[in-house]
Amino acid sequence: MLAPLLVSFIYREQAEHKFAFLIPILILAVLGCLLQLPKPKRTSLYQKEGFALVALVWIVMTLFGAVPFVINGDIPNYIDACFEIMSGFTTTGSSIITDITAVSHSTLFWRSFSHWIGGMGILVFVLIFIPESNEGSSMHLLRAESPGPQVGKIVSKMKVTTRILYLIYLGMTVLEVIILMFDKPIPGYENEKFFFSLLTTFGCAGTGGFGFIPGSMELFHPFSQYVMAIFLILFGCNFSLYYLILIGKIKDVLKSEEFKSYFLIVAASVCLTFISLVGKFESFPQNYTTEEAFRHSLFQIASLITTAGYTTTDFNVWPMLASTTLIVVMFIGAMAGSTAGGLKVSRIVIAAKGCYVNIRKLINPRYVPKAKIEGKILEEKTTNDVFSFITLYFFILIIVTLLLSFDPINGQTVQIVSDAGTYTVKHGFFSNFSSALTCISNVGPAFEAVGPYASFAGFSWFSKLILTFTMLLGRLEILPVIILFTPRTWKKV
Q1: Mean per-residue pLDDT, 101-107
Q2: Cα–Cα distance measured from residue 265 to residue 267, given in angstroms and rounded to the nearest whole number
Q3: Pairing of strands 376-377, 372-373
Q4: Cα dist. 316→6, 331, 475 in Å?
Q5: Nearest Cα to 114, choosing from 1, 229, 253, 243?
Q6: Can you tell me the distance from the alpha carbon of 195 to that of 203, in angstroms, rounded to the nearest whole number?
Q7: CA pair distance 456, 83, nearest whole angstrom
Q8: Fewest CB atoms within 10 A around its CB: which of 101, 232, 233, 400?
Q9: How far is CA 425 from CA 10, 117, 316, 412, 438, in A?
Q10: Strands 372-373, 413-418: parallel, antiparallel or unpaired by DSSP?
Q11: Roughly how many angstroms between the first and final C-alpha of the chain, as a whole number?
């Protein structure tokens, strides 16, 4: 919180905005000192404890991270504040703020900075500094927080691995900020060029997507929109691949099945969306030029497959083919080992190969599985783990959608003002379903009444708590949160 506190001083904000960060900083410092006094009998962590610890840390981070919003009055309701900061840390980007222009610079910075912190992982950053144990405690923490079905070290030592990952992350962040600075400032925001470049990059790097001006990225020039789209796709790649590039193993990168599948999905999705927009198979309000149709297609696919959630136009009114393509990529997500959410491309590839193996076994019971993933024999345990995760993912999606159907907002109409004009939509099943999907996949915007030009403010406090918890499940990929709340976890063995 020292970073947003500094921003508050730079922009000479009122005292309550400075105290909003200073008070929780002091409270956390005191608690941190007190918690160091008890000395545990055992310092090593087993997998169960590592997973539970990660989930607990993220909850505590959210509970304290929401405090500044309440103190400075930008989000006076604590449940709303928890929703907002959980959306930040989990790099979701869903927001309950209805008027972004009334929010202070320090709050805008804290929201976007939380994307950058949560993107690579809170405890992955901590692993850089804490001593590495011989019992594999660090690996349990990394596996619980890093997305993907298979998580491992890129070098022999965990501490060196985390340093390499964060140096790559930091380097790409700095590079995007520099490139964005070459563009012209947004009209009306001439003095905010560097500040906006920082916030934009935090969202791209963490694949978050909090907007900080009306219309998300709509007012940015085409140059910046193309730059954002490219960097979003790059941040959606497995960071281990960048390490291979740095040490000269480019051929190994090109051989990666997940890498090739990821870019094939992106290319195919952009083509489908572009064809839908220029083909005019179905009427929709926007009248794009060919370049605009391509740019919006590229940007929205890049934004949604990496689960960033930035928008340049109102895709809520796009033709059915384009809308369906966007929903599909929201499910899929980007590569494992990136900062993106969703199911992950690697799981889709493994699930497809697992299904193929099972079908072959049904046809020929003597068939010996020879399916490979990234050059290694696909083990039955890996396939079963992937199927289990996908089952849990859809089970949670259905349950959350059902719980949201109890909300009093259902059936109410919401007025949307966007580049497509002013129109009204009714909050119904698709609003609830897409809200659940966008939260568990950590995407950000949904459809219909919670589309890219709307907010989640209309939901009841109960629904906001459900969606807040859903975002955590999505970011930590379900198991750590389930383990934390399983009674058996807390029993002494």
Answers
A1: 95
A2: 6
A3: antiparallel
A4: 38, 17, 25
A5: 1
A6: 13
A7: 9
A8: 101
A9: 41, 35, 10, 8, 18
A10: unpaired
A11: 38
